[in-house]
Amino acid sequence: MFKDPGKFLAVVADNAMFLLMCLVVFAGIFGIALLLEKLWLKPEKQSPARRVAYVGIFAAISAVLMYFEFPLPFAPGFYELDFSEIPVLICSFSLGPVAGVVCEFLKVVLKLILKGTSTAFVGDLSNFVVGCALILPASAVYFANKTKKGAILGMAVGTACITVVGSLFNAVYLIPTFSVLFGQPLDVIIGMGTAINPAITSVNTLVLFAVVPFNLLKGVADSIITFLLYKHIERLLRMK
């Protein structure tokens, strides 16, 4: 496929660096969740078998929900809305931030096994990071104040974080990396946004007019549905 050995080695190096970046990101987010639980939140002890079972159930439901994606009129086609974060958010509210991060990771792994990737794995890393930007702060605030107001405040903080962190991560790392790994020049990617909104003329305007509203809508929608479902599901599974 590659006649030029130098080009082949460059592609291998790019993919190796991306894989290393994925491992570093997961380890970093998992470490933050673990520190939150050990030093501050200290959730109640639960049966390991029950914990593993619930994380697996929620991850499986989330992976199935990733099959149902909806394009949005203000964003290019590679940004599609799904509701796979809802089971993960419920899991993190029930079992704590660490379980939420593991559930988010398993959700992405299951999706890759069942569906594969159409974004050179960049979209899958984005899904993990953006999902954790919602569930980590939301569950941390909720566990610090386990009331209805605490849940609402947690999801509001999570929505703010998913909007800011997700958008910055797209601008600084994901969109340029997608361009390299997927072999699409940045001009082509920006052009997909321009075709929808003429105000999109650069990576920064793509993030401002497409990624920011996308993440904000995702955070609000996931939060509202989780708020309506959480107590019913918790009683159903008798987690407490």
How would you describe this structure to a colleague?
The chain has helices at residues 5-41, 48-65, 85-95, 97-115, 122-144, 148-182, 186-194, 203-237; strands at 70-71, 80-81. The chain has 240 residues and is mostly helical. Strands 1-2 form a two-stranded antiparallel ribbon. Strand 1 (70-71) and strand 2 form a beta hairpin. The radius of gyration is 19 Å and the shape is globular.
SSE order, one letter for each helix or strand: HHEEHHHHHH
Q: What is the 3D shape?
A: globular
- What integer is the average pLDDT? 85
**Biggest sheet overview:** 2 strands, antiparallel
**Beta-strand content:** under 5%
User: Structural class, please?
Assistant: mainly alpha
Number of strands: 2
